[in-house]
Design a protein that fits this description.
- The chain contains 2 helices and 3 strands.
- It is α+β, with helices and mostly antiparallel strands.
- Strands 1-2-3 form a 3-stranded mixed β-sheet.
- Strand 2 and strand 3 form a beta hairpin.
- Helix 1 crosses helix 2.
- The model has no long low-confidence stretch (mean pLDDT 88).
């Protein structure tokens, strides 16, 4: 079994970041994010951007199905981060809207444009402060 995890991760991130702006604009008139990064959130490194989406590909499991096939399952934590001086209620509302957009995108495109067999969301956790 040959698997290129970097290419897979990049394809997932690229599909999501290319497809979400249409939903964001249509649903809530949200502006595009400034940057998408394949990493755990690092605010020191990303000081210049106000709206960043971090894609943290944390874990893969491999289940052998036969001698010639395997089932690869992976997880990705998506962190939608906003930096600014708006009121906390405004920032919390905007994060909830972006979360809704990303949720809708993944629910509507469960193969992420053919990149994976199935994608789904298991948990959403909203933080007001970092």
């Amino acid at each position: 079994m040959k698997q290129d995890f970097y290419a897979l991760q990049k394809a997932i991130m690229d599909f999501i970041t290319s497809e979400y702006p249409a939903i964001a604009q249509g649903s809530y008139r949200l502006a595009p994010v400034d940057k998408a990064v394949m990493s755990f959130p690092n605010f020191d490194r990303e000081r210049g951007s106000k709206k960043i989406v971090f894609f943290d590909f944390a874990r893969y499991t491999v289940e052998r199905l036969t001698l010639e096939s395997s089932l690869v399952k992976g997880s990705c934590d998506i962190y939608i981060t906003l930096r600014g001086s708006d009121a906390p209620e405004m920032m919390s509302g905007e994060i909830a809207k972006y979360s809704t957009v990303f949720f809708s995108l993944i629910e509507e495109h469960t193969t992420l444009g053919g990149v994976v067999d199935y994608a789904g969301i298991e948990e959403i956790e909203l933080y007001e402060k970092v």
